[in-house]
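Colleagues,

For the teaching module next term, I've prepared a clean inverse folding example: a structure given as tokens, and then the sequence designed for it. I'd like students to try predicting residues themselves before seeing the answer, so please don't circulate the second half yet.
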């Protein structure tokens, strides 16, 4: 699993308990997963269909640097299934896991459309010869 995105937990991200608000984290995950699906399927019209049980494993506090990891576990006909983990960048302690997030590839008519993808594409393979981070 690649942990591409880092976030710095700021005062506006906290709940009244002084720890990271779950809603902020879910927003970050949904956006990160959507970007992952868009890149993998090569289509901007991708929507969240299903998110499985979310396990808030441990709390995060103001000032923590956290990182979001996503990887594809299954390519369907019109869907892609992802799994997600969020952890503390410094201690590597797990903060949240989502076993299954399903995104659906849409056509211009807004209906599910086959994406034709069967495996993870890596940036280095998409832009051979370029140096891409
Ligand atoms: C996404 C949407 C167009 C799919 O419509 P649908 O009639 O359920 O489509 P289908 O039954 O053809 O299913 C499409 C794919 O989703 C999968 N799917 C449908 N329901 C699912 C569920 N509950 N869990 C997991 N996968 C599911 C199907 O297996 C299919 O995948 P496949 O083609 O790879 O086999 C429709 O449900 C929708 O518009 N939902 C709202 C999306 C949204 O607003 N998201 C939040 C903002 S991004």
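(Answer key — instructors only)
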């Amino acid at each position: 699993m690649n942990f591409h995105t880092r976030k710095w937990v700021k005062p506006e991200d906290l709940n009244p308990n002084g720890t990271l608000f779950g809603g902020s984290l879910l927003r970050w995950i949904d956006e990160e997963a959507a970007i992952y699906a868009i890149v993998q399927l090569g289509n901007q019209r991708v929507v969240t269909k299903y998110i499985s049980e979310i396990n808030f494993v441990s709390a995060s506090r103001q000032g923590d640097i956290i990182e979001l990891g996503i990887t594809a576990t299954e390519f369907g006909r019109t869907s892609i299934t992802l799994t997600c983990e969020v952890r503390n960048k410094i201690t590597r302690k797990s903060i949240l896991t989502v076993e299954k997030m399903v995104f659906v590839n849409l056509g211009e008519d807004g209906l599910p459309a086959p994406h034709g993808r069967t495996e993870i594409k890596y940036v280095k393979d998409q832009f051979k010869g370029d140096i891409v981070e």
